[in-house]
Amino acid sequence: MALSYTHHYKLSFSALGLKKSGSLHLLPICCVQCNSNVSASPFTEKHSLQRYQRDQWVYNDSSNSNQRLVSLDGDDQTVSCSVPSDSDSIRLNDIALQLPELRKLLEVLKQKRESCGGQVPKNGPGNVFLVGTGPGDPDLLTLKAVKVIQKADLLLYDRLVSNAVLDLVGPDARLLYVGKTAGYHSRTQEEIHELLLSFAEAGANVVRLKGGDPLVFGRGGEEMDFLQQQGIQVKVIPGITAASGIAAELGIPLTHRGVAISVRFLTGHSRKGGTDPLFVAENAADPDSTLVVYMGLSTLPSLAQKLIHHGLPPDTPAAAVERGTTPQQRTVFAELKDLADEIKTAELVSPTLIIIGKVVALSPFWPQLSKQTSCFVEA
């Protein structure tokens, strides 16, 4: 099924009543065998059994013969069906299957709003909350976040919202996965904007769940700006960003008198992609600061070389933390010059946070590290 992005965009949101659509032929959708890495993850992967069970309401158009089928095969937790080889086809068909139920929910919300004694223009649209869920541990949620999550009509959640956090959602709420992984976006950012707008205009309490803090590498600012331009009020509920939560877990002070006078958050991705976006290394190579790199696994070798080239000592203490604050947390400690190699040896996977700076040596785990060896810690 060859569709351009523009064509797909019109098909998707016409079903929500935004534009007139044509017919769409559906292909069989997605299948996956949950391997040990995916099944052990505390987060929502693009093909996780928990996700399909949680979001199954959105595939309830039983008249469609190509509806997703999910089955359990003993302890292996195999999701069985045939798969188009093209990942974009999987995404397009996945969205096409969701649209009938999303349209139904939109109509239900409109009717509910009207039955409460008013028209949407008189009472105003519904509420949109951008909610930070922290680095993974549900105990790190704010009380305000829990209250909003439990009162939501519809929740759009990212890949790095942990399953433990999603278990707090109220029984009558609807969940919709809009996560992104490298090479696979279940929804484009523009589509997420339109979903938030459509349901807010219908009078729903819409919650956008994001890992960490919505306004720290979470694209929350883009969503807030778009909705405000459409006349929708947005309320932001901050979350504990990964830098703070994971550093606290390891006993690393991000700033410390006489050691680090500032902390700097960097992204390992560029807006346009590519393998070497880290042009900021020249200004970031400050031995008196702490650097925290988000989404930096693939670009760390280049970043480390550039930081050293611009004056950061090769023996600067550093740490890489996979799935921080969760029971699956794994940590590598090493000097900056060795960190990329040690991460590769340990086979850390996303999400992994990287902390670079002299403050790392203040962690109670750092004394286990000698000058010649690195330390691998598994929670």
Automatic annotation (TrEMBL):
EC number: 2.1.1.107
Pfam families linked to this entry: TP_methylase
This protein's UniProt keywords: Methyltransferase, Porphyrin biosynthesis, S-adenosyl-L-methionine, Transferase
PROSITE patterns named among the record's database cross-references: SUMT_1 (PS00839), SUMT_2 (PS00840)
Domain Tetrapyrrole methylase: 128-340
CDD domains: SUMT
Gene3D superfamilies: Cobalt-precorrin-4 Transmethylase, Domain 1, Methyltransferase, Cobalt-precorrin-4 Transmethylase, Domain 2
Protein known as: uroporphyrinogen-III C-methyltransferase
Class of the enzyme per the UniProt entry, highest EC level: transferase
InterPro entries on file: 4pyrrol_Mease (IPR000878), 4pyrrol_Methylase_sf (IPR035996), 4pyrrole_Mease_sub1 (IPR014777), 4pyrrole_Mease_sub2 (IPR014776), CobA/CysG_C (IPR006366), Siro_Cobalamin_biosynth (IPR050161), Uropor_MeTrfase_CS (IPR003043)
Family: Belongs to the precorrin methyltransferase family.
